[in-house]
Amino acid sequence: MRIGVDLGGTKIEAIALGDDGEILDRRRKPTPTGDYQAILNVIGDLVVGLEADFGEKGTVGIATPGSMSPETGLMRNSNTLVMNGRPFVRDIAKILARDIHTENDANCLALSEAVDGAAGDAASVFGVILGTGVGGGLVLDRKLITGHNRVAGEWGHTPLPLNEAERRLPPRQCFCGHLDCIETFLCGGAFSAEHRTRTGEDLSATLVAEAAAAGDAAAQVTLEIYVDRLARALAVVMNIVDPDVIVFGGGVSKISQLYDLLPPLLERYIFSDVMTTRVLPAKHGDSSGVRGAAWLWD
Q: pTM above the 0.90 mark?
């Protein structure tokens, strides 16, 4: 039995997978966001509860925001700020009395979709999370690529290639300390803020997209601005990695117009005369991260 845990900003989800990838059970609890020890306790309770119900111990993989430093063994770059600087892997391994595999949540999304998801037939997959934050993960031949410094796929914290109008704007400060990160333009909050700045309407990204689909001209412009930024950001990844498939997860990924509007713009921006990379939503949806965590032991 494989157990996967997804440590999210609002909820912690755990699943038990059979050897064939079938979900045997799942359960979730709210994330005690500001309390590190409480986060550890919730994860421990979820894992122990699953094992008690099935009467066996499983391997445990955990999808986390941020990643573990290969130098210090401490968590870093997490937008769940209470995790940063903590020996999370050591602490949760002690609670559960076993070795634990952990990876960034976007890495887990990419792995899940490459193993048995939307990109299950692809040799190279770039997984993207568009939600509260922006993350990415790279899988080649079903093997997760984490990189020498364990930052492979972290495209959300590189600068957006700015157009002429954006160069005239004040720089955007990211929580990571850098300016004009892709995340500051493409997270769900940035989508909403763009529309609010342009129109005065305070709508979520999903509601803006629904208004655009219903013919609202201002919402259509906001959506077009967002997708153009997304295409410029992904063109950088494509010019370096050139994946077979780009697969999207996170709340913003549920906006259906992305999958029609994005490919022609990618064709415009990449350094190629063709653009046949498939752009797909995650097959496993919100469960991709937690499934990928369970597959870390495969």
A: yes
